[in-house]
Design goal:
By secondary structure, this protein is an all-alpha fold. Helix content is about 60%, strand content about 0%. The structure holds protoporphyrin IX containing FE. The site of protoporphyrin IX containing FE (HEM) has 24 residues, from α3 and α10.
Length: about 270
Amino acid sequence: MVTATGRRYETAADRALTYDDYLGLTTLLGLQRPLSTHPDELHFIVVHQSTELWFKLLAHDLRRIVGLLDADRLPEACTVMRRVNGAMTALLAQMRSLRDLPPHSFHAFRGLLGGASGFQSGQFRELEVCSGLRDEGYLRDLRAVCGGALPGAVVRSLGQRSVAEAHRDAARRAGLGDWSALYTEERAATTLYVLSEQLMDYDELWLRWRTEHVALVRRVIGGSTRGTGGTAIDYLERTLRHRFFPYLWESRDTLAAAPAGEEGPRGGTAG
Ligand code: HEM
């Protein structure tokens, strides 16, 4: 920048942007602060931190999907949903890498974690509620393990529209009377069908994450040790029943009940 008196000052805009500046790498790479000298603790931290980064992208994309569904822009919602499922696949793979964390290595630094637990992840709760998980059973269980009050992230997210709500409303506007009516040759060629199957993929990826997380916990600390967050393994096992889009899963039951070639009893309504 040149001033009125002709003096030259270098501003941020004058400097060529570097890779490090753009990504804030100095800050980012300074955020891994192991509490022990154990060489495996860095892996544990990196997997958790990178998962939280993917969670951030997921929450951002799910909010976009709600907006696109509300505007009946289903093809665009499908494009974003594809990336959402890619992100889920990536974070699942990252968690799998922790199967290579030997139990004795984890125990070498676990005691230093105090009460810190993934259970406290605000972004995880935001994703659950914004995806569609808000039934009384889920909230009751969460209240019970959180000492009677819901975590702040859940309370905040309950005030926002979920993907499941936006999906059900978009289906109703598209003229779908009940969910089993989606599974016909004619409907299978629609964008609503493709999107609904992508939501099934998403729900299933979460089920995989939860199942593999429980397996990882059993593998690393066993089935009788309480977590650093204070819960027993059966809490995590109960979470395996959660579904964001239960109506899509239940509609399969009514298809199986229908005699071949006839329209069977109908599943839940799309509204
Ligand atoms: C060695 C690996 C891991 C162990 C032993 C472990 C252990 C546990 C345990 C015991 C719980 C139950 C809550 C508690 O009492 O602490 C829990 C919950 C949780 N963990 Fe992990 N975890 C591991 C890896 C991860 C990773 C990589 C993530 C990714 C961010 C993660 C995220 C979570 C979340 C979100 C919950 C809450 C689940 C829910 O309430 O449905 N954990 N973990």
